[in-house]
Amino acid sequence: RFAYVNGAYVPHEHASVHIEDRGFQFADSVYEVIYLYKGKLIDAEAHLKRLEHSLNELDMDMPKSRAAFMVTIKELVRRNRVKTALIYVQVTRGSAVRDFSYPENTMPSVVMTARRVAPFDANVPLKGIKVMSLPDIRWARCDIKTTSLLAASMSKQKAQDNGFDDAWLVTDDQFVTEGTSNNAWILREDGRLQTRKPSHEILNGITRQAIIKLAGQKGIEILEDAFSLDEAKKAKEAFVTSSSACVKPVIQIDDTTIADGKPGLFTQQIAKIYADFLEE
Ligand code: PLP
């Protein structure tokens, strides 16, 4: 396995950045996870655009052009001989003497890895997950995809310690923001599909955006608006989306079973629509 570190492809076990790297000390860094499906990079352009958004919000420029990123990603894929994989891309502000304010003229660190995964298959019944609602203790700029992931990590761990698979994060007024690493969706009783609209409170998922478009083309009505935890528990179906999970049914929220505790038919249909898009 090879990783990419600042211009070089190095054996994964030897890939490292300096201890003074601000990504390490301050989580002063942003990332993307891009799905490589059967040799095809899914929505890579949108991921790189979002990477640029994240960097710009931290007063950083893209260290190289999107086209140059694509060349590196493709070379990493080639060297790792992967067909279906998760491509991890991280950019940090670089190394500097430790100081809270941004140092000037640092060389950003750019690292990438490729990890083989099984291809998403919507032709088999999907496995549902159980989610635990937990207070959203993350910061106020969740639209920036930073590696400051401790709050999400703590939440997922807490959910798992309680016998759940993941957490759904909830605001003080009891509205669901998103999962720890995915966007949250419900099928409302009125048949509309609902997911929170983009804001500083969530990451605007690339998979989320793809599904809004694809479902819209199929005539499925979508409501982009916050739903409460209570509404989620009353939903006909629920699921999460992300580049790594694609579409995953939610079959339980806290003590409440959703869709009789089985992955719903509608969710399976959304998964099929997304799988067809991956195959295009
Ligand atoms: N929300 C959060 C907090 C995430 O970390 C992620 C992905 O990692 C998502 C949503 C889904 O985003 P995407 O579909 O672009 O992978």
Automatic annotation (TrEMBL):
This is Probable branched-chain-amino-acid aminotransferase. Its EC number is 2.6.1.42. One of its GO terms (biological process) is amino acid biosynthetic process. It catalyses: L-isoleucine + 2-oxoglutarate = (S)-3-methyl-2-oxopentanoate + L-glutamate; L-leucine + 2-oxoglutarate = 4-methyl-2-oxopentanoate + L-glutamate; L-valine + 2-oxoglutarate = 3-methyl-2-oxobutanoate + L-glutamate. One of its GO terms (molecular function) is branched-chain-amino-acid transaminase activity. Belongs to the class-IV pyridoxal-phosphate-dependent aminotransferase family. InterPro entries: Aminotrans_IV (IPR001544), Aminotransferase-like (IPR036038), BCAT-like_C (IPR043132), BCAT-like_N (IPR043131), Class-IV_PLP-Dep_Aminotrnsfr (IPR050571). Its cofactor is pyridoxal 5'-phosphate.
